[in-house]
Specification:
The structure is a single chain. The protein is α+β, with helices and mostly antiparallel strands and 244 residues long. The protein has 3 domains: 53 residues, Structural Genomics Hypothetical 15.5 Kd Protein In mrcA-pckA Intergenic Region, Chain A, CATH 3.10.290.10; 92 residues, 2-Layer Sandwich (Alpha-Beta Plaits); 81 residues, Alpha-L RNA-binding motif (Alpha-Beta Plaits, 2-Layer Sandwich), CATH 3.30.70. It has 6 helices and 17 strands. The strands form 4 sheets. Strands 7, 8, 9, 10, 13, 14, 15, 16 and 17 form a 9-stranded mixed sheet that branches. A 4-stranded antiparallel sheet has the order 3-2-5-6. It has a two-stranded antiparallel ribbon with strand order 1-4. Strand 11 and strand 12 form a beta hairpin. The longest helix has 13 residues. 29% of the residues are buried.
Amino acid sequence: MERLQKVIAYAGVASRRKAEQLIVEGKVTVNGKVVRELGTKVSNSDTIEVNGVKLEKEDKVYFLLYKPKGYISAVTDDKGRKTVVDIFKKHVPERIFPVGRLDYDTTGLLLLTNDGEFSYQLTHPKFKIDKTYVARVKGVPTVEGLKKLQRGIKLEDGKTAPAKVSMTSFDEQAGKAICEITIHEGKNRQVRRMFEAIGTPVVKLKREQFGFLTLGNLKPGEYRELTKHEVKLLRVLAETGKME
């Protein structure tokens, strides 16, 4: 038995918070009856409908995308902008959604799935999965500035956890530098805000690595399916903090 909102979220229909809202609004039925109680539990044999559409059980799918610039990390966008899901629509029938997010102008490694539990494991801060970014910044960070990022820096929504940061190249005359930073949190626009806080705003940002996964030979807009072994290793990494 599972909570109704959890089942809806894991089916990829909506986030858990949105699923709770749909339940309270009376838009969810279980075996033909409207259910408004958030604590309701359901089983595999129950028939669930959301907005009159039956919840179908899909095979779980897992993809690694090289997100190009100019795409929203969402399923839909009320402003009519392109979403990362649009890249898959012609070839993937499952209702997939992004695992976490990358900003509109940020490129790089993004996972997509229809497995809500898997997504939760990989995005919740308590699981501490490393994500590595390469940032081209305006100006050259000072040694003290880099140390601030390494120790954790105060942002308006709290202090960041310690990060691994290095400056891989810089041009003092041109006033620019390239830095590599590894974090395990997922605050909104976190990397950009961290560099802004030390006076070197990000000009270009790319996520190079998620856990042990890299982009490999993929080009922007290309994707591949994760192997069963990779999915298993990601689960182990989330649960134990290491790969066995």
